[in-house]
Design brief:
Blueprint lengths: L1 E3 L2 E3 L11 H5 L2 E9 L2 E2 L2 H14 L10 H14 L6 E10 L12 E9 L13 E10 L13 H12 L4 E6 L4 E4 L3 E6 L2 E4 L10 H10 L6 E4 L4 H4 L4 E6 L3 E5 L1 E2 L2 E2 L3 H16 L1
Parallel strand pairs: 7-8, 7-15, 11-12
Antiparallel strand pairs: 1-2, 1-6, 3-4, 3-5, 5-6, 8-9, 10-11, 10-13, 13-14, 15-16
Helix pairs in contact: 5-7
Length: 281
């Protein structure tokens, strides 16, 4: 079942049309959320990021768009798909209502909630090859729009096709300064000894929820030094570990980049702490 503006529809129902601004102009935002046994992981952080992004895009936030209301709509959708006792991936999309060309007729919004089952209740690290390469065809512009989770993801789409065609599991994106920004589907962390680096949002990376959580975790661990600093492509092969973070997978270690193979000891250490943080909310 699909939740469109609070009403449930079967997945084969036609409830959007050719005038949809998300389709026409990418005039929308989305959150991808993990829900386990009816508990929404990091819900407050997702909600606050969505509200901040809506303000930046000058969308009108309805009075009833409270954290409790949207949470209720997510759980309603979970229940309608018989997923309340399972793990689920939820996509919450918000887009401006129909009307106008580039200039919208209204800043009022609609929302859409989808849910499908996941296979594991908590974040895990699978023992499998995960090779990446740089995607150089198009570059990320390091500005505020790049940090938002908007529907404008054509760079990620083309990059994913490149990865598939070349049998990579993912690609790393560069910004216009030729710094490594992030992966196609998550933030990047680089480990060298006891120093862990992640690109700053000023480089154009997404303001990721798990990125934010891990920064908080690392700032409370004396063993490691965390740096939010630009990463050059030359640093990648010198690192001991590289890993990607997002709200669905949690932490995904990179096993190979070009001729360099990487370990995952730090990633495994942090994964337990991330799962603990998810259980606490």
């Amino acid at each position: 079942m699909i939740n469109f503006d609070g009403k449930l529809y079967s997945k084969d129902t036609y409830y959007l049309n050719h005038k949809n601004r998300g389709l026409r102009y990418g005039d929308g935002l989305f959150e991808t959320i993990r829900v386990v046994n009816g508990k929404i992981f990091f819900w407050e952080e997702h909600y606050l990021r969505l509200m901040s992004s809506m303000r930046i895009l000058r969308m009108d936030i309805p009075m009833d768009f409270t954290m409790e209301f949207i949470e209720g709509q997510i759980l309603k959708t979970i229940k309608s798909n018989i997923l309340e006792l399972q793990s689920a991936r939820v996509r919450l999309t918000v887009f401006r209502k129909n009307g106008g060309l580039y200039t919208p007729k209204t800043n009022d919004v609609s929302f859409l909630i989808e849910a499908k089952a996941l296979h594991t209740p908590f974040y895990i690290i699978e023992d499998k090859t995960y090779e990446v390469e740089l995607f150089k065809d198009f570059l990320v512009n390091p500005d505020m729009l790049s940090t938002l989770k908007t529907n404008n993801k054509i760079l990620n789409v083309v990059g994913s096709i490149f990865a598939k065609e070349n049998e990579y599991q993912n690609c790393l994106l560069l910004n216009t300064n030729k710094d490594v920004v992030e992966a196609l589907n998550g933030n990047l962390f680089l480990v060298t000894g006891k120093v862990i680096k992640t690109p700053p949002t000023s480089d154009g990376c997404l303001k990721g929820i798990v990125r934010k959580k891990l920064i908080g975790i690392l700032n409370n661990i004396e063993e490691y030094t965390l740096l939010e600093a630009s990463i050059s492509p030359f640093e990648l092969q010198k690192a001991n570990e590289l890993f990607i973070t997002n709200s669905i997978v949690g932490i995904q270690p990179i096993t190979k980049y070009r001729k360099k193979e990487f370990g995952n000891g730090v990633a495994k250490n942090l994964l337990g702490k991330l799962n603990a943080a998810a259980r606490l909310g």
